[in-house]
Write a structure and sequence with these properties.
By secondary structure, this protein is mainly α. Helices cover about 80% and strands about 0% of the residues. It is built from four helices and no strands. α3 runs antiparallel to α4. The protein starts with a helix and ends in a 9-residue tail after the last helix.
């Protein structure tokens, strides 16, 4: 199974590399005589697309959060987090303040 996955990965990489090499002269020819867009122009072009992507992500997130099983899992997490804070030496009041200020856990941003 691993050999098959590696072979598929190698084929995909080879295909993408050959496609990039094949299309490179086309892109270079199309850009001759044309100025490169500024960063501001690129951002203006990407703005609507980024807005749609963010809207789709938020919509998906709200769909997941609205599920009863998600609320159950969040409740379990919140109780475990509260208990862990107390076990680490926080007072009940401090733990409650930390937990209530946190809100819904989010996916951490990657660098």
């Amino acid at each position: 199974m691993r050999i098959r996955v590696k072979a598929i990965g190698a084929l995909t990489t080879a295909f993408l590399l050959s496609a990039a090499i094949t299309l490179m002269p086309i892109g270079a020819t199309a850009q001759q005589g044309q100025r490169q867009p500024t960063q501001e122009e690129i951002m203006q072009m990407m703005g609507p697309m980024m807005g749609q992507m963010i809207e789709a992500m938020m919509d998906s997130m709200l769909t997941v959060i609205a599920r009863p099983e998600t609320a159950q899992r969040l409740a379990i997490f919140t109780k475990n987090y509260y208990d862990a804070l107390i076990a680490k030496g926080f007072s009940k009041e401090e733990a409650l303040k930390i937990v209530t200020s946190m809100g819904i856990p989010a996916v951490p941003a990657t660098k």
